[in-house]
């Protein structure tokens, strides 16, 4: 029998071994209770990043993360539960129109979301820019909102007891260069989604310059691992692979993205946001067993009604003016041509430096800060026309943001550009 102590587990993985179920249960439990130190878990995370985990190890690791806390249960609801999770990107405000849209189609959408860290924005930060809106919703109230056919969607913070080992491990990975491990990302995301108690789940796995996964092969591997983890735990799971080379929509920043989402719910908004919202909604509605076309529900205003009810249910005022940053700066096109590239990472970094994101967990964000994009790849631009407007309350942030944008776009000629697809693949089991 293999010894159950942290050093032998770390060295076994460091040397390319496969951890037993008992070793995984022991080390995750020890980390949760404090028997395994942070530096030991960090070393193990690095060994896993370098050596990988088998499908069995990943499934056991996920189960151990779930077992570190409690599971939510929505089985008593009369409507089918279905959720969506995005692996994170720039300008990714899709949850905002999507959750009320799917609720308006007849499903219950219990969405536990996170705050942004680094260059990718967080859904809760965006929604908190709505005056009065609160991210903390007690479980009994969640159930009431989900059961209410006029609301049906709740987007809120996960309680402290939902996969707490993952919460601590993610914070360690974030500061030890161990985020980019496919089995660790898959188990981190899926442990929270399985513990959340949704019956079905649609994953939006981002691929490209502004995403964790830079190549389609890595994205496919991550998506497959998550779909398998979901299926093995009885959660019907489908993944879409979607492009994240260019920011989604026309804005990156909290209140800016809320305003853009409201434009989508009102029947307008950028074409890429509408396309992705409807594509994800179709998958969610299908998994939930409903026979409704989300495009019609978006177009006829029912999704907007659910948005307004959903905002009110969490204390927000859907009619209140959104925060606006005190200072702006414009980036103009240096010459005439066609915008052939607008880099998601550059725009995300600029928005973050302007104050839309946080450098450390717990830092405040500026609700009005961010980047507005006046042209997207494929658009013709003339010399001197505004390309980007930068928003912040702290004008000393402008030089850092402008530096991030310095090489973030190219202007060329029309035949140097052809429209890349947004939807790159679908993984189901
Ligand atoms: N999001 C998560 O929740 N976990 C990861 O490991 C990466 C992204």
Spatial strand sequence of the major β-sheet: 1-4-5-13
Beta strands, count? 13
Estimate the strand proportion: 15-25%
- Report the C-alpha radius of gyration, rounded: 22 Å
> What's the CATH architecture of the largest domain?
3-Layer(aba) Sandwich
Task: Describe what this molecule looks like in 3D.
This protein is α/β, with parallel strands linked by helices. Helix 1 packs parallel to helix 3. The longest helix is centred in the middle third of the chain and has 17 residues. The mean pLDDT is 95. The protein binds uracil. Uracil (URA) binds next to helix 9. The site of uracil (URA) has 8 residues, from helix 9.
Fold topology:
Elements: H1 6-14, H2 21-33, H3 38-51, H4 55-67, E1 82-86, H5 95-104, E2 109-113, H6 123-127, H7 139-147, E3 153-157, H8 164-174, H9 182-196, E4 200-207, H10 216-232, E5 236-243, E6 251-252, H11 254-265, H12 271-287, H13 294-299, H14 302-313, E7 327-332, E8 337-342, H15 344-356, E9 370-373, E10 380-381, E11 386-392, H16 398-405, E12 409-412, E13 423-427
Parallel strand pairs: 1-4, 2-3, 4-5
Antiparallel strand pairs: 5-13, 6-9, 7-11, 8-10, 8-12, 9-11
The protein binds uracil.
Uracil (URA) is lined by residues 87-88, 170, 179, 184-185, 188-189.
């Amino acid at each position: 029998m293999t010894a159950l102590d942290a050093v032998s587990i770390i060295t076994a993985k460091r040397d390319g071994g496969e951890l037993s179920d008992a070793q995984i249960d022991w080390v995750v439990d020890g980390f949760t209770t404090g028997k395994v130190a942070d530096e030991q878990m960090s070393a193990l995370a690095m060994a896993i990043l370098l050596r990988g985990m088998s499908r069995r190890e990943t499934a056991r690791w996920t189960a151990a993360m779930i077992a570190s806390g409690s599971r939510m249960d929505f089985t008593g609801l009369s409507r089918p539960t279905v959720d969506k999770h995005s692996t994170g990107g720039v300008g990714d405000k899709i949850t905002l129109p999507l959750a009320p849209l799917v609720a308006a189609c007849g499903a219950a959408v219990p969405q536990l979301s996170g705050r942004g860290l680094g260059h990718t924005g967080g859904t809760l930060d965006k929604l908190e820019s709505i005056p009065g809106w609160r991210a903390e919703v007690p479980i009994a109230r969640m159930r009431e909102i989900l059961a209410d056919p006029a609301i049906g969607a709740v987007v809120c913070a996960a309680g402290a007891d939902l996969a707490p080992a993952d919460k601590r491990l993610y914070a360690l990975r974030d500061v030890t260069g161990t985020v980019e491990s496919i089995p660790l990302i898959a188990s981190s995301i899926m442990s929270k989604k399985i513990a959340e108690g949704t019956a079905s789940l649609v994953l939006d796995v981002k691929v490209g310059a502004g995403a964790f996964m830079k190549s389609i092969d890595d994205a496919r591997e991550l998506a497959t691992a998550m779909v398998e983890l979901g299926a093995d735990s009885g959660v019907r799971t489908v993944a879409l692979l979607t492009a994240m080379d260019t920011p989604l929509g026309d804005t990156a920043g909290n209140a800016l993205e809320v305003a853009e989402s409201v434009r989508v719910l009102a029947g307008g908004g950028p074409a890429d946001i509408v396309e992705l919202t409807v594509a994800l909604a179709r998958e969610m509605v299908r998994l939930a067993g409903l026979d409704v076309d989300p495009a019609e529900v978006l177009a006829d205003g029912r999704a907007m009604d659910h948005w307004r009810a959903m905002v009110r249910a969490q204390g927000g005022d859907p009619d209140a003016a959104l925060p606006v940053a005190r200072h702006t700066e414009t980036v103009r096109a240096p010459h005439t041509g066609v915008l052939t590239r607008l880099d998601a990472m550059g725009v995300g970094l600029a928005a973050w430096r302007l104050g839309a994101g946080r450098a450390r967990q717990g830092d405040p964000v500026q609700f009005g800060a961010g980047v507005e994009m006046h042209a997207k790849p494929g658009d013709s631009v003339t010399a001197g026309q505004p390309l980007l407007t930068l928003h912040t309350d702290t004008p000393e942030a402008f030089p850092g943001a402008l530096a991030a944008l310095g090489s973030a776009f190219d202007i060329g000629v029309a035949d140097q550009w052809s429209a890349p697809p947004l939807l790159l693949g679908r993984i189901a089991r």
